[in-house]
Amino acid sequence: MIKKSDIKPLLNEDKIQAGIKKLADKLNEKYKDEEVYLVCVLKGSVMFMVDLAKHLTMPVKMEFIRLSSYGSGTTSSGKVNAVDIKLPDLNDKNVLVIEDIIDTGHTAKFLMDFLRHNFKFKDLKFCALLDKKCKRVANIEADYYCFEVDDKYLVGYGLDIDGNFRNLTYIGYIET
Ligand code: IMP
Ligand code: MG
Known about the structure:
This protein is an alpha/beta fold. Helices cover 24% and strands 35% of the residues.
């Protein structure tokens, strides 16, 4: 059982919020007054999406989907499961996929391929709070990310281990 005291701090609340604000400024500049659909990949991205959305000035709609790739604990299964992807008609829409972290990239690749196969977007971009570039396997990059992180298992601010610690305001790592 991992305790809160086992979590080593990595990004504090102020740092996270400043990174998100900087990204929001970029997105406000890019989309101006055009409507944007945020597609939040549950559950890990919920904190990020909510805080990002508060800074966005264009008309915003929110959609939520569920995928899963990590099994239990800290090992990636490498297989992505579409647990629940119900979306409205996104043809000709601006869509921003909102992810907590891009790691091997399997999830991002699966989702972006799925979306492109089903819709002709006006614009489709992938937005991650964290980018674990050193772990990438799939041929995909985030269009936007706030922080590059090392190969450590991270928890907090949406990220979990076995469902725990999503509610922390900061991000830390656990030694595995
Ligand atoms: P990928 O498919 O390997 O890129 O993994 C993406 C998903 O795995 C993310 O959306 C997270 O839900 C989860 N994940 C990857 N790295 C971590 C981590 O360090 N902590 C918690 N979850 C992670
Ligand atoms: Mg995720």
